[in-house]
Amino acid sequence: MKASALLDPDGDRDVRTYSGVLGVMLALSVPKTTKILLATNNPKKAEIFSENGYVAPEFHPIVVPATDLTREHLKAKQEELGHIDLVSEED
C-alpha cells in the first residue's frame, strides 16, 4: 500500500488550521504587526494569518528524527502534503 494511502485513507487532507489561534488573537486585539513564530512543518498553516492581515509568520520546523517505524509516514507528509524538514536524504 502506498504511504500516502496510509496517511490519508479517505482522501481528506489535513484540515487543521490555526483559526482558533487567530480568533483568540483578534479577540485580544493583538496588533497585526505582531511578529508570529509558528512551530510547524506545514507552511499552509500560515495562510490564515496572511489572509487576515497579519504579517506573514516565520516557521520553526519541529524536528523529530525518523525511525524505521515513522520514516514512510514522514516522507508521505513531506511529499504529499508539502510539509518541510521532516526527513532528510540521510533518513
Can you characterise this structure?
This protein is mainly α and 91 residues long. The protein has one domain. Helix content is 33%, strand content 4%. It is built from four helices and two strands; from the N terminus they run H-H-E-H-E-H. The chain has helices at residues 3-7, 19-27, 47-51, 71-81; strands at residues 37-38, 58-59. The protein has a two-stranded parallel sheet. The radius of gyration is 15 Å and the shape is elongated.
Q: DSSP helix count? A: 4
**Helix and strand run:** HHEHEH
Mean pLDDT equals: 82
Quick one: biggest sheet? 2 strands, parallel
Helix/strand-derived category reads mainly alpha
Shape: elongated
Note the main attributes of this structure:
single chain, 91 residues, two-stranded parallel ribbon, elongated, 4 helices, 2 strands, mainly alpha
Q: TL;DR?
A:
The protein is mainly alpha-helical and 91 residues long. Helices cover 33% and strands 4% of the residues. It has one domain.
